[in-house]
Design goal:
heterodimer, A: alpha/beta, Elongation Factor Tu (Ef-tu), domain 3, Rossmann fold, Dihydroorotate dehydrogenase B (pyrk subunit), domain 3, 3 domains, seven-stranded mixed beta sheet, 5 helices, B: alpha/beta, TIM Barrel, eight-stranded parallel β-barrel, four-stranded antiparallel beta sheet, 9 helices, 16 strands, 31% helix
Chain lengths: 256, 303
Amino acid sequence: MRKRVEDFTIINNRQVNSEYYILDIQSDDDLPELLPGQFAELRVDGSNTVFLRRPISFYDVDYNNRTISLLIQEVGKGTRQLAGAVPGDILNMIYPLGNSFSSEGVTRALLIGGGVGVAPLLFLGKTLKSNKVDVNFLLGFRNRDFLVDVDKFEACGNVFITTDDGTFGEKGTVLDHMLIKTGLKEYDKIYTCGPQVMMKAVALLAEKENTDCEASLENTMACGFGACLCCIQKTIHGNLRVCVEGPVFNTKEIIW
Amino acid sequence: MVDLAVQIGNLKFKNPVSTASGCFGYGYEYEDFMDVNRLGAIFVKGTTGSNREGNPYPRMAETPSGMLNSVGLQNKGVDYFISDIYPKIKDYDSHIIVNVSGSTIEEYVEVAEKLNELEKIPAIELNISCPNVKEGGMVFGTHCPSAIEVTRSVRKAFAKTMIVKLSPNVTSIHEFAKAVEGAGADAISLINTLLGIAINAKTRKPVLSTVTGGLSGPAVKPVALRMVWQAYHSVKIPIVGMGGIMNATDAIEFILAGATAVQIGTANFIDPAVSMKVLDGIESYCLENGFSDVNDLIGALET
């Protein structure tokens, strides 16, 4: 798939909570085919301390309106600056980047996300649903205020939620949920994205149950298209680039 | 029309704009974004005698107006380059120049000997300045007798144009420039990255797995310009200048300081087509300022 550099127009900036926001951005042209798991490198203008682009995965895609949604957490200067975007602003992106989740032969999937790591799982869930896959989400958030678009996830399948403080759903993290403790073998595919400790734990449990599992990694990167070799992940095939051979890896290949 | 062709050793570049090793992969990574055939030269990724996995993650830290990296020469070795990469890139209309790295003089010589046999590799860039490998690399570039020895040894093994890439992590750049000129270099390129550290105060740990890394980007440009200028006034061989070039004006500053050609490095990560903008911008500058030949700008700094 041909990569491109393009100016998008920001049409909406929705604050989800004190740290998360969702940018809806629109292209002048028809969007190319985008795949769940892929990402874009966003340019952050106007700061000497934000030098590199920021890699952000696709949260939702609306081909009819030529619109992409990006769920972003403020973690540093770059994402804080992007949070100030207003409708009409221009966002320059390199996209589409990276590989995608695989879904061949999948009939019943469990998508496990933590925090802002739920971002690629909405786009994945939507795509799986349109392919007649039985979609189930297990999503973990810090507390009730940190829930993200639960209705949108519910439109794709069953949703199970945990919060660290128990203000919504089951108390604890996704790793404490009974689905994880007893039910993994009922799915033919597990997809996970979130904090590394969570993904690693999910991967090990899936392996124990002999269920195929893919994780989407978010190593820090410079270029995003395979030139700088900064974002490498140690795997059974050696050091691989998260931006090209990933961000999605079968967890059996990852050396955590 | 502006004459943009420049001469590096026996090699004519159709224009002075090239891309820096480690910042442009093997060229094909950029084919979606630009016509790589328009470049004067592509300096491809550092190549060693055998496969190297490089340093552990994390390898990169963003810093004000720049970045630190400690990739550590990850590459699959010279034999893989010859069998799997060379066939894909040898017919580019830009010169393919291989950056040669090693831990021992024998390794440098082995890589250079093998590359000498490749018809479409007209030049090598001898990397005696990588700050990110434990043994070798920068040791050769910061110890003058070692720099001379490795340059002399590779000179005997490589008959075509040999550019020696210098380290900025020295007190007197002109000593090294002169030393490698005397040892048989056809040209020098500078600067490689400046050794630095990024610290996370929250965790009280270094950001990079290797603690230290190489600084690049606009943060290093004034240092790089100074070193190109000093080198220009101490050697007769041509200089390929680099260090934080983000646009055509930056590139022209390097040429005025004494560079015959320039390399674009870190900027490629932010704007993958930046080298074409630099090329077009150099031509426009010449037209607007009445220069019919870009060579008239080399070292034209009025002091």
